Amino acid sequence: MKADPAAQARLLDLQELDTRLQRLDHRLRSLPEIAEAARLKERADALDAELITAQTKASDVARHQRKAESDVDQVRSRAERDVKRMESGTITNAKELQNLQSEIESLGRRQAELEEVVLEVMEQAEAAESEVDRLTREREAAVAEAAEVTARRDTAAAEIQWDRTRLNQDRERVAADIPEALLTFYDKLRSQYDGLAASPLRYGRCNGCKLALSTVELNEIRAAAADEIVRCENCRRILVRTEESGLKEPAAE
């Protein structure tokens, strides 16, 4: 492949822009806010699950409390009716009065037991509601923090995208100075060699792989026509000859 030396030199400008674009892409992928936002979302999701479990438990305890209180009311109402019957004087049979008195005492004991259950369930309900309140506060804090981090992430990403847009515009201008065949070849090499396709030859060394060329390789490059595309024998990237290439023969004495 052949190309005007000016077009070859323009490859270095294009490579510089592509390298900067590659760095911006890496910065975008590596924004610390990305991992932080994901962590906070995971935390908020976990708190959501815990909150649902706590709310379910609180609802079950509240239902148990209502049932226990209803049982107490039923026993109390029955005991009150029995007391009224006994105090009304309508029951004169001694055996029946004795049975009614026994039932009233039994209901009293049952009411006391149920009231103990109510107290226990009330404590459980208080603890369950407290847990719901705690998880609600934690979840709200996690959601708020996640929103703040996400906003920072989006702002940083927008700034990077703005830089990418500007660099892409510069790239289009530079790419317009390069023949289509050479540009296609350059892009193909970029995909093969981690984004680095063209490198200057500086002082006998490829700036791409950082390896020094042998004397034979340097002599072959010296002998090549100025418009011939040369490549590093080590990394196979395009070598762009510059004033710093170290190709000039030393002056004869």
TrEMBL record:
Gene3D superfamilies: 1.10.287.1490. Residues 205-239 form the C4-type zinc ribbon domain. Residues 14-193 form the CT398-like coiled coil hairpin domain. Keywords: Coiled coil. Pfam families: CT398_CC, Zn_ribbon_9. Residues 97-152 form a coiled coil. This is C4-type zinc ribbon domain-containing protein. It comes from Nocardiopsis alba.
